[in-house]
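Two quick folds needed for the group meeting slides. Do the first one here.
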Amino acid sequence: MQRFLRGFATKANRYTPEAQVILQDTMVPGAYLKYLKNRSNKDKTKRGSDEVPMYTEPARSMTFGQKSDGPTQAQMRLADRVRKAMTKVQAVEDLPTNWLSQLRVADVKVARNLKRCQIEYEPIANEQGKVHNAVRKHSRLLNTLINQHAQTEHTIHIKFISHEHKDIDEVYNTIEKELDSL
């Protein structure tokens, strides 16, 4: 009998006064009652009210839709294949316009899942606008030709991006060198 009464007495203290008001006004499903329960003093001391909040970084920073740790071996091999295929397409294939052969591949980035690819190119010709328009207009044709010449197991979705940020890259490199020398 005492055990029954002891259990009944602790149930009255189970919820805070604010939670008891909520429970009287609304019906709360049993699974959510744990959020209204009164926490013991032990829990409050464990959490510590005087702790300094810590700044946490996200687990991964995402760029280009993937992890930014650095390219894997498979990514580097596929990027090399795509770069060679682009060179082969420019040399062998009969392209619809001569402007498509007037570009140089600056960088090839492959996603972690090996299904997407970004080709950064620089126009060689003086008329850069015509080269950009030709690449934009014939990007589907270039995509299929590169996939044929790369001879991969699955189709790679290729996106062509103008490498106009080479000046910014140079600035970043000089800043990095200056920081390393300090």
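Then this one, please, same format:
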Amino acid sequence: MAIDAVRAVADEGKCCILDIELQVLEERLRNRGTESEDAIQARLKAAKEELAYAAEEGSHDKVIVNDDLDTAYEQFRKFIVDCN
């Protein structure tokens, strides 16, 4: 399960970066033409589970909304520097 992988990364003291937008993920998977419908649905289900986990209080050390590139980059850069 993808959530277990995220927890394992965090348990190792590493920073985990997630970028999940279901509509974009589905478009990418369909445009590749390499995934069966069952595989696409399985990937979308896993992504939905990751989003549910992400919504849990305390599941992440930092949430950055990329609605302004310069601001998001600065927040990301500062977070990475602080992690190390």
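Slide caption for protein two: The chain has a mean pLDDT of 84.
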